[in-house]
Amino acid sequence: MARRARTHHATGAERAGPAAGRRWPWRCTVSALVSAKGLRKAYKNKVALDDAAFEIPAGRIVGLIGPNGAGKTTALKAMLGLIPFDGQLNVLGLDPRTQRDELMRDVCFIADVAVLPRWMKVKEAIEFVSGVHPRFDKARCERFLKGTQLKPNMRVREMSKGMIVQLHLALVMAIDARLLVLDEPTLGLDILYRKQFYQRLLEDYFDEQKTILVTTHQVEEIEHILTDVMFIRDGKVVLDTPMDTLGERFIEVFVDAQRAEEARGLQPIDERALPFGKTVMLYDGVPAERLAAIGETRTPGLADLFVATMKGTYA
Ligand SMILES: Nc1ncnc2c1ncn2[C@@H]1O[C@H](COP(=O)(O)OP(=O)(O)OP(=O)(O)O)[C@@H](O)[C@H]1O
């Protein structure tokens, strides 16, 4: 979906209303915070989510990663009850279609950092979020800001990008949500600020009571903070794995030219050339001992795994 200008900060953060609707009729796995099965969404004649299935356990940082138009934003919107959809979807034990108000008490949704209006003062941003989110702790936000150069009367347009990141983070981190949903939160920031954003989120916000779901194209810089990764392609979740078991399934091997044919016989899912005649081959589900016999092995980076998984997407 083409990114459009967003006009306010916390799109999903609405004042909680009375509990509405019925409980979802089927039980999700005890530890799953979000559980989807046969999730489908079609816009006119475009299928955005096509029988997608996934589970997000509590206390995790999950990256939802996919190429443009894969269905990431649509999946988030469904979880937040912002669009109608078909199939089963349970978020925090609630049905987003009928229990959105109740859901929003425990969910915080923040779009990218650039959404803070330029005319807004620090104190106005605080008042705004305070007014729309029931779990926003104003004092906590002000404590976070104390350690920065930001002053209550400073306007967004007077801030450097780094300061905007600090304000954004202070607002996010003062919301005591069980589920924090971030849709490409660092769009438009350079690599230093992007790293700073994720690092602070990890160090000052995340704990085992919280779950963070983040979509991004910037695979490399969130890789180290993720506990789980989901790849989405053409509306389907094509990979859903904890980061710490990724290396049990996927292995990269550095192969010399003379062993290349032998290595290809083990059917790599991708290969790329290196200088001096070496090739890196990426395998899915081939035993580590067999691969160790043909070259030096290592766990692939998420970016290389993403490229291999998405081959053909841009054809
Ligand atoms: N309101 C809409 N009306 C029609 N088609 C839509 C609408 N929103 C999304 N789509 C289409 O649904 C598909 C999935 O879009 P979605 O925004 O979920 O993808 P995405 O993975 O978030 O992409 P991006 O990374 O580009 O933001 C795309 O083909 C998009 O064009």
Automatic annotation (TrEMBL):
Keywords recorded for this protein, A-Z: ATP-binding, Nucleotide-binding, Transport
PROSITE patterns from the UniProt entry: ABC_TRANSPORTER_2 (PS50893)
Record lineage: Bacteria, Pseudomonadati, Pseudomonadota, Gammaproteobacteria, Lysobacterales
Domain ABC transporter: 34-259
Protein name as catalogued: ABC transporter ATP-binding protein
Gene3D superfamilies: P-loop containing nucleotide triphosphate hydrolases (3.40.50.300)
Keyword ATP-binding in annotation: yes
Keyword Nucleotide-binding applies: yes
A Pfam family of this chain: ABC_tran
Entry's Gene Ontology molecular function annotations: ATP binding; ATP hydrolysis activity
Parts of the chain that traverse the membrane: none
